[in-house]
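@here heads up, posting the sequence + SMILES for the pyridoxal-5'-phosphate run so it's all in one place. Ping me if the SMILES looks off, I pulled it from an old spreadsheet.
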Amino acid sequence: MSRDFEARLLPDLERIAAHFGTPFHIYDEAGILDTGERLKLAFSRVKGFREYFAVKALPNPRILQLMKVMGFGFDCASIPELMLARGQGARAGDIMFTSNNTSAAEFDEAIDGGGCILNLDDISLIDKVPEMPELVCFRLNPGPEVAGNKIIGEPEKAKFGLTVDQYVDAYRTARERGASRFGLHTMVVSNQRDYRHILDTTRRMLLWAGKLDDVLGIQPEFINIGGGFGIPYGPAETPLDIAALGEGVADAVDQFAARRGYRPKIYTESGRYITGPHGVLVTRAINRKETYRIYVGADACMSALMRPGMYPDTYHHISVPGRTPEDGVECVDVTGSLCENNDKFAVQRTLPRIEDGDLLVIHDTGAHGHSMGFTYNGRLRPKELLLRSTGSVEVIRRAETPDDYFATLQFDPWILSKA
Ligand SMILES: *Cc1c(COP(=O)(O)O)cnc(C)c1O
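bot reply: prediction finished. Complex structure tokens:
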């Protein structure tokens, strides 16, 4: 959570919480726009640079509208995500469709539903594309050549992409099937804050692109260096040096162009970097118990924020507006209400002493927060709010109700008799 967002939100937080009711995620329009502009500025020396916002990070139409305003495209991986992008008026060139284990229905929607830049995950999918589009991209998994990180794991154990030994064949085959324009994609890290790692991968991608030219005479039009740009979740973590990354990529492309006489465009597909720091989950403390540990029970649970329960060692900073450490601190677990012991927002965290009724602000939930939520245990997902640049607050998704939970139980009788 940026200091600016804190300064915009905290003075009004109690009034917002009283008006809309807790829990909710609230996003900072000014912060999202500022980060988007900074990304563009960092890559301004890279000709044809474009960000394709990873829709799964924050799949809300009101947020996607901001991406559209900034000139971003959309990275989609499912039919509903394609529908969301097209709902913003996105046309074929504005959508990267990066699916994994793609189904026939997904290919139909991706191609016949309005077109997209098809990013194929494997050579075996070439024959399954109903009609080979003119422009095709492959997702390359560099395997042991590149170190991964905790969230995605080592590349050679990751399910994504095809190998360095396979990709030349993949482009050859796609060309035989009718493709005439090409891109190259990789994404091997998640939440990476060291720009040198991303830059190193970009340089390797340029080498792989060069090999396509050497062997097949194919010059990829673009190189999509993926998402995975990290944000600081912990107060001691340093931010990604996006300016250094942009400069480094610009230099690498310049050198490539000087050697090879053409210049591929660079695309990114960040999610977390754009919206992660610009959202928080606001929840109220409703219970407190002292057993073997002290537990502070919040009125939100994993249905609103899965990350701490899903990825070990995930940290989300928590602040308690209005309480200072001078009032006393204690070490607590902050929990939700699910019958699942992983349902904790913080484990053995030192926080100011929290009383029932206090608001808790769980930081950096603007990406892979609400969207990862689920309804296990009949726990419903909360509303999403937007703190507009003007200072007003808008509901951009209502909270789920039991009717939503029961909606899939409304259907016509459908029985297959015994043969
Ligand atoms: C999830 C995903 C992204 C976005 O990841 P962030 O960590 O949010 O930047 C980008 N591209 C692909 C293919 C993804 O699966």
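MO: The chain is about 30% helix and 20% strand.
MO: One more: The CA atoms of residues 168 and 211 lie 8 Å apart.
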